[in-house]
Amino acid sequence: MATEPPLAFLQSRVLRILLAISLLVLQTVALAQAQAVSLEEATAHDLQLAFGQNKLTSRQLTKFYLNRIRRLNPLLRGVIEVNPDALCQADRADRERKVKPYGSLSALHGIPILLKDNIATKDKMNTTAGSFALLGSVVPRDAGVVARLRRAGAVLLGKASLSEWAHYRFSSDHSGWCARSGQGKNPYNLSATTCGSSSGSAISMAANMGAVSLGTETDGSILCPSSFNSLVGIKPTLGLTSRGGVVPITPRQDTVGPMCRTVADAVNVLDVIVGFDPYDAKATREASKYIPRGGYKQFLKADGLKGKRLGIVKAFFDFYSGTPVTKAFESHFNTLRKQGAVLVDHLELANMNEIYSYSSESVAISAEFKLALNTYLQDLVVSPVRSLADVIAFNNKHKHVEKIDEYGQDLFIAAQATNGIDKTVKSAWQNMTRLNRDGFEKLMRQNKLDALVTPENIVSTVLAIGGFPGINVPAGYDEDGVPFGICFGGLRGSEPTLIEIAYGFEQATKIRRPPTFLR
Ligand SMILES: *[C@@H]1O[C@H](CO)[C@@H](O)[C@H](O)[C@H]1NC(C)=O
Ligand SMILES: *[C@@H]1O[C@H](CO)[C@@H](O)[C@H](O)[C@H]1NC(C)=O
Ligand SMILES: *[C@@H]1O[C@H](CO)[C@@H](O)[C@H](O)[C@H]1NC(C)=O
User: Which positions make up the signal peptide (predicted)?
Assistant: First the structure.
């Protein structure tokens, strides 16, 4: 009896302490979970709010992504290099936030961004388009879009992997593979394609290994991986974003654009990267007339679909008949109507067979690539290779690491055999001008369309040869768990309208969900 009270006291104390400890543990776990949950899938807007309320620092956020890259990248291979200066840049953003008036900073200030590895950074990171041929090369300056990101205070987190040379070395598939980081994996189904060539940007965004990212597109390279990884990808009007300092395929078609988890994130990135660049003067000057006063954010309207005329070309859907895409799109058409859009059905795109024979496009690109790549390589401060011929020779010397016997370099060899802008290339240019005029431009104008609606990235060639913009938004998942997207394409400079449409659709459907990393 005598011992009872102390024992009871002791017990209750032990219990209380245990309880306290477990509560503390529980609380810590809950906190960690709350943080993990809120940082995963967090938008730039969410993150800025958390910065502003002193709930999060840019350093903590950068560490979160660096940890995720450490943990997930050995499997997914979406990142080639992380920036050794990323935490320094985050600290600088944290210091600046304390002294600058609230609301005076860019939407990307302190936000970690991943860059496709064909976008030059003049820092400790390499810019190699995924190839060992460019490892150790020194670029003359930041790419135009990177200079803008730095000025906005974004944290350059690292370089994303890609289909090597933006998939212009070989014509065989092998999307998502580059020599420097191996085969990238689709986080939604590790056996499925990532698509490309901006595969690493897509993988990393899907798996939350960064807040936002940049990809590049010549024909499908933003739209396709965005579709396959449940992302929003904006392929801007040609010249709206500078190609200065981007390893080229062809200045006639190359664009740089955002790949993100939401329309709002992609638009925040677009607002920062658009504009004139003396290193891509002609195209950026011409396209700068399209940039709206006050930027693109004003077009994030929840009722953005109201009154929009959306065209449907049946031939683009015939390709998908009997697949989950068909079913999903039937329901999406209803949603679009319910949100106030007018669907203009049963349209035909003239010369579709000619466009999709790729004859003019491929002839032109082959010649343009050789000229553009040689110029890029000659402008480097230091480089192991100075011409396409050097790169081909490098590959032959390093057959094993570059998988030359398996994957080949047929597009390189064909390009090397071209002789500048000759009669055939000029005829190809004329053909593409005709295809744009009689095809997409006529279809859009005659039917007074705001956008053409198509599944996945099937429309990318139509947009590519005309320098037209397109936005991919998540639209569903197939029976293997692989995502697919819906694309809204429009005439040059129609980003404001496309953003209203894309945002309206996204807000009405909210289809994106994070991946499960299953085979
Ligand atoms: C860039 O490549 C060099 C090898 O040439 C390597 O030592 C360096 O670590 C790379 N930079 C980064 C940030 O990984
Ligand atoms: C351009 O189109 C014409 C047909 O109108 C065709 O004969 C010619 O081969 C095309 N040029 C190229 C480079 O594909
Ligand atoms: C992934 O795709 C393969 C087909 O490529 C399929 O057999 C498998 O069931 C899919 N996995 C999941 C988790 O859906």
Answer: 1-34
